[in-house]
Design brief:
Helices cover 69% and strands 0% of the residues. The chain is mostly helical. α6 runs parallel beside α9.
Length: 429
Protein backbone atom coordinates (compact mmCIF):
# COMPACT_ATOMS: atom_id res chain seq x y z
CA UNK A 1 0.00 0.00 0.00
CA UNK A 2 1.40 3.37 -1.03
CA UNK A 3 1.54 6.34 1.35
CA UNK A 4 -1.22 8.06 -0.66
CA UNK A 5 -3.41 4.99 -0.37
CA UNK A 6 -2.75 4.79 3.36
CA UNK A 7 -3.69 8.44 3.76
CA UNK A 8 -6.94 7.90 1.85
CA UNK A 9 -7.78 4.82 3.90
CA UNK A 10 -7.14 6.62 7.18
CA UNK A 11 -9.08 9.73 6.16
CA UNK A 12 -12.54 9.92 7.75
CA UNK A 13 -15.53 9.29 5.51
CA UNK A 14 -17.64 12.50 5.50
CA UNK A 15 -20.88 10.64 4.87
CA UNK A 16 -20.23 8.18 7.70
CA UNK A 17 -19.22 10.98 10.06
CA UNK A 18 -22.40 12.90 9.24
CA UNK A 19 -24.47 9.78 9.77
CA UNK A 20 -22.91 9.18 13.18
CA UNK A 21 -23.68 12.75 14.21
CA UNK A 22 -27.26 12.56 12.99
CA UNK A 23 -27.93 9.08 14.38
CA UNK A 24 -28.94 10.25 17.90
CA UNK A 25 -31.34 12.79 16.39
CA UNK A 26 -32.88 10.20 14.06
CA UNK A 27 -33.27 7.71 16.91
CA UNK A 28 -34.88 10.39 19.10
CA UNK A 29 -37.36 11.15 16.29
CA UNK A 30 -38.19 7.48 15.79
CA UNK A 31 -38.80 7.06 19.53
CA UNK A 32 -40.81 10.26 20.05
CA UNK A 33 -42.99 10.07 16.93
CA UNK A 34 -45.06 6.99 17.95
CA UNK A 35 -45.73 8.49 21.38
CA UNK A 36 -46.96 11.72 19.82
CA UNK A 37 -49.06 9.80 17.31
CA UNK A 38 -50.79 7.98 20.17
CA UNK A 39 -51.74 11.44 21.46
CA UNK A 40 -53.14 12.29 18.01
CA UNK A 41 -55.24 9.13 17.97
CA UNK A 42 -56.65 9.80 21.44
CA UNK A 43 -57.46 13.35 20.35
CA UNK A 44 -59.08 12.63 16.98
CA UNK A 45 -60.95 9.41 17.70
CA UNK A 46 -63.52 8.55 20.38
CA UNK A 47 -61.77 7.32 23.52
CA UNK A 48 -61.58 3.54 23.83
CA UNK A 49 -60.43 1.33 26.65
CA UNK A 50 -57.60 -1.19 26.23
CA UNK A 51 -58.18 -4.61 24.69
CA UNK A 52 -57.61 -6.31 28.04
CA UNK A 53 -61.02 -5.12 29.25
CA UNK A 54 -62.93 -8.18 27.90
CA UNK A 55 -60.42 -10.57 29.49
CA UNK A 56 -60.46 -8.77 32.84
CA UNK A 57 -64.25 -8.57 33.03
CA UNK A 58 -64.70 -12.09 31.66
CA UNK A 59 -62.36 -13.45 34.32
CA UNK A 60 -64.20 -11.63 37.10
CA UNK A 61 -67.53 -12.97 35.81
CA UNK A 62 -66.23 -16.55 35.59
CA UNK A 63 -64.77 -16.47 39.10
CA UNK A 64 -68.18 -15.28 40.31
CA UNK A 65 -69.69 -18.42 38.68
CA UNK A 66 -71.03 -16.49 35.70
CA UNK A 67 -70.69 -17.09 31.95
CA UNK A 68 -68.14 -14.86 30.17
CA UNK A 69 -69.71 -15.69 26.78
CA UNK A 70 -73.23 -14.58 27.77
CA UNK A 71 -75.02 -11.52 26.41
CA UNK A 72 -75.09 -10.02 29.90
CA UNK A 73 -71.29 -10.20 30.12
CA UNK A 74 -70.97 -8.71 26.62
CA UNK A 75 -73.13 -5.76 27.68
CA UNK A 76 -71.03 -5.31 30.79
CA UNK A 77 -67.86 -5.26 28.67
CA UNK A 78 -69.43 -2.77 26.23
CA UNK A 79 -70.43 -0.48 29.08
CA UNK A 80 -66.87 -0.48 30.40
CA UNK A 81 -65.41 -0.02 26.92
CA UNK A 82 -67.82 2.41 25.24
CA UNK A 83 -69.68 3.85 28.21
CA UNK A 84 -72.94 2.13 27.26
CA UNK A 85 -74.29 -1.12 25.87
CA UNK A 86 -74.27 -1.16 22.08
CA UNK A 87 -77.38 -1.06 19.91
CA UNK A 88 -77.84 -3.41 16.92
CA UNK A 89 -77.32 -0.45 14.60
CA UNK A 90 -73.87 0.37 16.03
CA UNK A 91 -71.27 -0.62 13.46
CA UNK A 92 -68.33 -1.04 15.85
CA UNK A 93 -66.42 -3.83 17.54
CA UNK A 94 -68.86 -5.69 19.80
CA UNK A 95 -66.06 -6.34 22.30
CA UNK A 96 -67.53 -9.70 23.29
CA UNK A 97 -65.33 -12.15 25.18
CA UNK A 98 -63.89 -14.33 22.37
CA UNK A 99 -60.96 -16.09 24.07
CA UNK A 100 -60.80 -19.79 25.01
CA UNK A 101 -61.88 -20.34 28.58
CA UNK A 102 -58.44 -21.32 29.86
CA UNK A 103 -57.42 -17.68 29.29
CA UNK A 104 -59.38 -17.04 32.47
CA UNK A 105 -56.96 -19.25 34.38
CA UNK A 106 -53.90 -17.32 33.20
CA UNK A 107 -55.38 -13.92 34.07
CA UNK A 108 -57.19 -14.96 37.26
CA UNK A 109 -54.53 -13.39 39.56
CA UNK A 110 -55.60 -9.95 38.29
CA UNK A 111 -59.35 -10.47 38.62
CA UNK A 112 -59.48 -9.31 42.24
CA UNK A 113 -57.56 -6.13 41.46
CA UNK A 114 -59.24 -2.91 40.39
CA UNK A 115 -59.07 -1.96 36.74
CA UNK A 116 -56.70 1.03 37.29
CA UNK A 117 -54.30 -1.25 39.17
CA UNK A 118 -54.50 -3.98 36.53
CA UNK A 119 -53.98 -1.44 33.76
CA UNK A 120 -50.91 0.02 35.47
CA UNK A 121 -49.38 -3.42 36.02
CA UNK A 122 -49.70 -4.35 32.36
CA UNK A 123 -48.50 -0.97 31.13
CA UNK A 124 -45.29 -1.70 33.06
CA UNK A 125 -45.16 -5.42 32.31
CA UNK A 126 -45.70 -5.43 28.53
CA UNK A 127 -42.66 -3.25 27.66
CA UNK A 128 -40.51 -5.44 29.91
CA UNK A 129 -41.75 -8.64 28.26
CA UNK A 130 -41.27 -7.20 24.77
CA UNK A 131 -37.78 -5.97 25.57
CA UNK A 132 -36.83 -9.34 27.09
CA UNK A 133 -38.00 -11.10 23.92
CA UNK A 134 -35.28 -9.43 21.85
CA UNK A 135 -32.22 -11.11 23.44
CA UNK A 136 -34.10 -14.41 23.65
CA UNK A 137 -34.86 -14.40 19.93
CA UNK A 138 -31.30 -13.33 19.17
CA UNK A 139 -30.04 -16.28 21.19
CA UNK A 140 -32.42 -18.67 19.41
CA UNK A 141 -31.28 -17.34 16.02
CA UNK A 142 -27.60 -17.55 17.04
CA UNK A 143 -27.07 -13.84 16.48
CA UNK A 144 -24.52 -12.10 18.68
CA UNK A 145 -24.69 -8.34 19.26
CA UNK A 146 -22.49 -6.13 21.35
CA UNK A 147 -24.21 -4.55 24.40
CA UNK A 148 -24.62 -1.12 22.70
CA UNK A 149 -26.09 -2.70 19.58
CA UNK A 150 -28.36 -4.90 21.68
CA UNK A 151 -29.60 -1.86 23.60
CA UNK A 152 -30.26 -0.04 20.32
CA UNK A 153 -32.14 -3.04 18.93
CA UNK A 154 -34.33 -3.22 22.03
CA UNK A 155 -35.00 0.52 21.86
CA UNK A 156 -35.99 0.38 18.19
CA UNK A 157 -38.22 -2.64 18.89
CA UNK A 158 -40.06 -0.78 21.64
CA UNK A 159 -40.29 2.30 19.41
CA UNK A 160 -41.92 0.40 16.55
CA UNK A 161 -45.55 1.28 15.93
CA UNK A 162 -46.45 -2.38 16.43
CA UNK A 163 -45.08 -2.41 19.99
CA UNK A 164 -46.31 1.07 20.90
CA UNK A 165 -49.85 0.35 19.73
CA UNK A 166 -49.89 -3.08 21.39
CA UNK A 167 -48.73 -1.62 24.71
CA UNK A 168 -51.21 1.25 24.46
CA UNK A 169 -54.05 -1.21 23.86
CA UNK A 170 -52.73 -3.61 26.55
CA UNK A 171 -53.12 -6.36 23.98
CA UNK A 172 -52.70 -9.98 25.21
CA UNK A 173 -50.90 -10.78 21.95
CA UNK A 174 -47.76 -9.23 23.47
CA UNK A 175 -48.00 -11.73 26.36
CA UNK A 176 -48.34 -14.59 23.87
CA UNK A 177 -45.35 -13.34 21.87
CA UNK A 178 -43.20 -13.22 25.01
CA UNK A 179 -44.30 -16.74 26.00
CA UNK A 180 -43.35 -18.07 22.55
CA UNK A 181 -39.96 -16.36 22.67
CA UNK A 182 -39.22 -17.73 26.14
CA UNK A 183 -40.45 -21.19 25.14
CA UNK A 184 -38.16 -21.37 22.10
CA UNK A 185 -35.25 -20.06 24.17
CA UNK A 186 -35.80 -22.66 26.90
CA UNK A 187 -36.20 -25.43 24.35
CA UNK A 188 -32.91 -24.49 22.75
CA UNK A 189 -31.19 -24.32 26.14
CA UNK A 190 -32.22 -27.88 26.93
CA UNK A 191 -35.13 -27.20 29.29
CA UNK A 192 -38.06 -28.85 27.46
CA UNK A 193 -40.27 -29.22 30.57
CA UNK A 194 -40.41 -25.46 31.23
CA UNK A 195 -40.77 -24.79 27.48
CA UNK A 196 -43.79 -27.10 27.30
CA UNK A 197 -45.48 -25.20 30.12
CA UNK A 198 -44.95 -21.83 28.43
CA UNK A 199 -46.18 -23.07 25.06
CA UNK A 200 -49.31 -24.43 26.72
CA UNK A 201 -49.95 -21.02 28.28
CA UNK A 202 -49.46 -19.40 24.85
CA UNK A 203 -52.51 -21.29 23.52
CA UNK A 204 -54.76 -18.55 24.93
CA UNK A 205 -54.46 -17.31 21.33
CA UNK A 206 -54.36 -20.61 19.42
CA UNK A 207 -54.66 -18.93 16.03
CA UNK A 208 -51.30 -17.23 16.68
CA UNK A 209 -49.39 -19.89 18.60
CA UNK A 210 -50.89 -23.01 17.01
CA UNK A 211 -48.77 -23.38 13.84
CA UNK A 212 -45.44 -22.91 15.64
CA UNK A 213 -46.48 -25.26 18.45
CA UNK A 214 -47.64 -27.88 15.93
CA UNK A 215 -44.26 -27.80 14.17
CA UNK A 216 -42.36 -27.95 17.46
CA UNK A 217 -44.43 -30.94 18.57
CA UNK A 218 -43.52 -32.71 15.33
CA UNK A 219 -39.90 -31.65 15.73
CA UNK A 220 -39.69 -32.96 19.30
CA UNK A 221 -41.57 -36.13 18.37
CA UNK A 222 -39.05 -36.97 15.66
CA UNK A 223 -36.21 -36.27 18.09
CA UNK A 224 -37.94 -38.38 20.77
CA UNK A 225 -37.96 -35.53 23.29
CA UNK A 226 -40.83 -36.92 25.32
CA UNK A 227 -40.32 -34.48 28.17
CA UNK A 228 -41.49 -31.54 26.07
CA UNK A 229 -44.53 -33.37 24.72
CA UNK A 230 -45.48 -34.66 28.17
CA UNK A 231 -45.05 -31.25 29.78
CA UNK A 232 -47.08 -29.52 27.07
CA UNK A 233 -49.83 -32.15 27.17
CA UNK A 234 -50.15 -32.19 30.96
CA UNK A 235 -50.19 -28.39 31.25
CA UNK A 236 -52.76 -28.09 28.46
CA UNK A 237 -54.92 -30.76 30.09
CA UNK A 238 -54.73 -28.98 33.45
CA UNK A 239 -55.69 -25.65 31.84
CA UNK A 240 -58.63 -27.22 30.01
CA UNK A 241 -59.80 -28.98 33.17
CA UNK A 242 -59.75 -25.72 35.11
CA UNK A 243 -61.52 -23.97 32.23
CA UNK A 244 -64.26 -26.61 32.16
CA UNK A 245 -64.70 -26.29 35.92
CA UNK A 246 -65.02 -22.52 35.65
CA UNK A 247 -67.23 -22.46 32.54
CA UNK A 248 -68.92 -25.83 31.86
CA UNK A 249 -69.61 -26.43 28.18
CA UNK A 250 -67.46 -23.50 27.06
CA UNK A 251 -66.04 -25.00 23.84
CA UNK A 252 -69.09 -24.56 21.55
CA UNK A 253 -69.68 -21.11 23.05
CA UNK A 254 -66.11 -20.10 22.28
CA UNK A 255 -66.36 -21.41 18.72
CA UNK A 256 -69.55 -19.40 18.18
CA UNK A 257 -67.91 -16.29 19.67
CA UNK A 258 -64.89 -16.68 17.39
CA UNK A 259 -67.08 -17.11 14.29
CA UNK A 260 -69.06 -14.01 15.23
CA UNK A 261 -65.81 -12.12 15.88
CA UNK A 262 -64.55 -12.78 12.35
CA UNK A 263 -67.84 -11.50 10.91
CA UNK A 264 -68.35 -8.28 12.85
CA UNK A 265 -64.68 -7.27 12.57
CA UNK A 266 -64.65 -8.03 8.83
CA UNK A 267 -61.42 -10.01 9.09
CA UNK A 268 -59.54 -11.23 6.03
CA UNK A 269 -55.89 -11.98 5.28
CA UNK A 270 -53.71 -9.06 4.26
CA UNK A 271 -52.85 -10.52 0.85
CA UNK A 272 -56.54 -10.69 -0.06
CA UNK A 273 -56.94 -7.08 1.01
CA UNK A 274 -54.01 -6.02 -1.20
CA UNK A 275 -54.52 -8.18 -4.29
CA UNK A 276 -58.16 -9.18 -4.19
CA UNK A 277 -59.73 -12.44 -3.12
CA UNK A 278 -58.55 -14.88 -5.78
CA UNK A 279 -55.02 -13.59 -6.39
CA UNK A 280 -54.49 -13.10 -2.65
CA UNK A 281 -55.80 -16.61 -1.98
CA UNK A 282 -53.44 -18.04 -4.61
CA UNK A 283 -50.46 -16.29 -3.03
CA UNK A 284 -51.52 -17.57 0.40
CA UNK A 285 -51.73 -21.15 -0.86
CA UNK A 286 -48.31 -20.94 -2.52
CA UNK A 287 -46.74 -19.42 0.59
CA UNK A 288 -48.40 -21.96 2.89
CA UNK A 289 -47.17 -24.89 0.77
CA UNK A 290 -43.66 -23.46 0.48
CA UNK A 291 -43.45 -22.82 4.23
CA UNK A 292 -44.75 -26.32 5.00
CA UNK A 293 -42.15 -27.84 2.67
CA UNK A 294 -39.39 -25.74 4.25
CA UNK A 295 -40.40 -26.76 7.78
CA UNK A 296 -40.75 -30.42 6.81
CA UNK A 297 -37.48 -30.72 4.91
CA UNK A 298 -35.53 -29.16 7.78
CA UNK A 299 -37.38 -31.02 10.54
CA UNK A 300 -34.17 -32.75 11.71
CA UNK A 301 -32.33 -29.52 12.53
CA UNK A 302 -30.55 -29.50 15.92
CA UNK A 303 -31.78 -27.03 18.53
CA UNK A 304 -28.39 -25.33 18.88
CA UNK A 305 -28.24 -24.36 15.18
CA UNK A 306 -29.18 -21.04 13.62
CA UNK A 307 -31.55 -22.95 11.36
CA UNK A 308 -33.76 -23.72 14.36
CA UNK A 309 -34.34 -20.00 14.92
CA UNK A 310 -34.94 -19.43 11.21
CA UNK A 311 -37.59 -22.15 11.14
CA UNK A 312 -39.36 -20.75 14.21
CA UNK A 313 -39.33 -17.29 12.63
CA UNK A 314 -40.66 -18.74 9.37
CA UNK A 315 -43.58 -20.41 11.14
CA UNK A 316 -44.52 -17.19 12.94
CA UNK A 317 -44.16 -14.93 9.89
CA UNK A 318 -46.25 -17.29 7.77
CA UNK A 319 -48.90 -17.43 10.49
CA UNK A 320 -49.20 -13.64 10.62
CA UNK A 321 -49.38 -13.47 6.82
CA UNK A 322 -52.12 -16.09 6.45
CA UNK A 323 -54.43 -15.43 9.35
CA UNK A 324 -57.49 -13.13 8.98
CA UNK A 325 -56.60 -9.61 9.99
CA UNK A 326 -57.96 -6.10 10.40
CA UNK A 327 -56.27 -2.70 10.24
CA UNK A 328 -56.10 -2.00 13.97
CA UNK A 329 -54.75 -5.50 14.68
CA UNK A 330 -51.24 -4.45 13.70
CA UNK A 331 -50.15 -5.47 17.22
CA UNK A 332 -50.04 -9.05 15.86
CA UNK A 333 -46.93 -8.00 13.93
CA UNK A 334 -44.99 -8.33 17.19
CA UNK A 335 -44.75 -12.01 16.18
CA UNK A 336 -42.60 -10.86 13.27
CA UNK A 337 -39.81 -9.85 15.66
CA UNK A 338 -37.59 -12.95 15.12
CA UNK A 339 -38.04 -12.71 11.35
CA UNK A 340 -37.13 -9.00 11.41
CA UNK A 341 -34.00 -9.66 13.46
CA UNK A 342 -32.83 -12.43 11.14
CA UNK A 343 -33.58 -10.57 7.91
CA UNK A 344 -31.98 -7.33 9.11
CA UNK A 345 -28.85 -8.81 10.65
CA UNK A 346 -28.00 -11.59 8.17
CA UNK A 347 -27.76 -11.55 4.39
CA UNK A 348 -29.14 -14.66 2.65
CA UNK A 349 -26.78 -16.48 0.30
CA UNK A 350 -29.36 -17.34 -2.34
CA UNK A 351 -30.02 -14.77 -5.08
CA UNK A 352 -33.83 -14.83 -4.86
CA UNK A 353 -33.76 -14.67 -1.06
CA UNK A 354 -31.38 -11.71 -1.22
CA UNK A 355 -33.72 -9.88 -3.59
CA UNK A 356 -36.70 -10.57 -1.35
CA UNK A 357 -34.67 -9.34 1.61
CA UNK A 358 -34.10 -5.98 -0.10
CA UNK A 359 -37.87 -5.55 -0.47
CA UNK A 360 -38.46 -6.60 3.14
CA UNK A 361 -35.86 -4.13 4.41
CA UNK A 362 -37.40 -1.34 2.32
CA UNK A 363 -40.85 -2.10 3.73
CA UNK A 364 -39.48 -2.25 7.28
CA UNK A 365 -37.72 1.10 6.85
CA UNK A 366 -40.94 2.58 5.46
CA UNK A 367 -42.86 1.30 8.49
CA UNK A 368 -40.53 3.24 10.77
CA UNK A 369 -40.46 6.40 8.65
CA UNK A 370 -44.20 6.60 8.06
CA UNK A 371 -44.92 7.44 11.71
CA UNK A 372 -42.79 10.63 11.80
CA UNK A 373 -44.24 11.53 8.41
CA UNK A 374 -47.77 11.08 9.75
CA UNK A 375 -46.92 13.25 12.76
CA UNK A 376 -45.44 15.94 10.51
CA UNK A 377 -48.51 15.89 8.29
CA UNK A 378 -50.79 16.14 11.30
CA UNK A 379 -48.88 19.17 12.57
CA UNK A 380 -48.95 20.93 9.20
CA UNK A 381 -52.36 19.78 7.88
CA UNK A 382 -54.42 18.85 10.96
CA UNK A 383 -57.86 17.25 11.06
CA UNK A 384 -57.22 14.90 8.11
CA UNK A 385 -57.75 11.47 9.62
CA UNK A 386 -56.01 9.66 6.76
CA UNK A 387 -52.67 10.60 8.28
CA UNK A 388 -53.81 9.09 11.56
CA UNK A 389 -54.42 5.64 10.12
CA UNK A 390 -51.40 5.53 7.79
CA UNK A 391 -49.10 3.74 10.32
CA UNK A 392 -51.66 0.91 10.51
CA UNK A 393 -51.54 0.23 6.77
CA UNK A 394 -48.74 -2.33 6.87
CA UNK A 395 -50.10 -5.26 4.87
CA UNK A 396 -47.01 -6.37 2.95
CA UNK A 397 -44.29 -6.84 5.58
CA UNK A 398 -45.40 -10.29 6.86
CA UNK A 399 -45.44 -11.68 3.31
CA UNK A 400 -42.02 -10.25 2.42
CA UNK A 401 -40.43 -11.56 5.62
CA UNK A 402 -41.94 -15.03 5.24
CA UNK A 403 -40.95 -15.11 1.56
CA UNK A 404 -37.35 -14.16 2.35
CA UNK A 405 -36.96 -16.87 4.98
CA UNK A 406 -38.66 -19.56 2.90
CA UNK A 407 -36.49 -18.79 -0.12
CA UNK A 408 -33.38 -18.79 2.06
CA UNK A 409 -34.26 -22.26 3.33
CA UNK A 410 -35.41 -23.86 0.08
CA UNK A 411 -33.10 -22.12 -2.42
CA UNK A 412 -29.65 -21.70 -0.88
CA UNK A 413 -26.66 -20.68 -2.96
CA UNK A 414 -25.56 -23.47 -5.35
CA UNK A 415 -21.90 -23.08 -4.45
CA UNK A 416 -20.83 -25.21 -1.46
CA UNK A 417 -18.62 -22.33 -0.36
CA UNK A 418 -21.40 -19.78 -0.07
CA UNK A 419 -23.68 -21.44 2.45
CA UNK A 420 -26.86 -19.79 3.78
CA UNK A 421 -26.25 -17.51 6.71
CA UNK A 422 -28.11 -19.73 9.13
CA UNK A 423 -25.65 -22.57 8.31
CA UNK A 424 -22.63 -20.50 9.28
CA UNK A 425 -22.02 -20.80 13.01
CA UNK A 426 -20.16 -17.88 14.51
CA UNK A 427 -17.51 -18.15 17.15
CA UNK A 428 -20.06 -17.00 19.70
CA UNK A 429 -22.43 -19.92 19.00
Amino acid sequence: MTPATQTEASAPNPARTLLKRLAPVLIAILVAAPLFHIHVIRRDFPPAQPDLIPVWIGTRVALAHGNPYSDATTQQIQTAYYGRALRPSDNVNKMAYAYPAHTLVLFSPFARLSWPTTRLIFLLLLPILTAASVPMWLRVARIHLSPPHLALTILLTLASWTAVWGIHQIQPTLVVAALLAAGCWLLQRGNPAAAGILFALATIKPQLAGPLIAWLCLWTLLRRQWTFLLSFALTTAALLACATWLVPGWLPQWRAAMADYVVYRHLRPDLQFLFGHWLGLALEVVLAIAAAVALWTRRQCPPDSRLFGVLCATALATTVCLMPNETLMIYNHILLLPACLIVVLHRPAGRLAAQARVLALAQLALDYLVVPIAVLCDLTVPKIQFFTIVPFLDFLLPFLLALTLVLDILLPAPSPVAQPQWAIETAHS
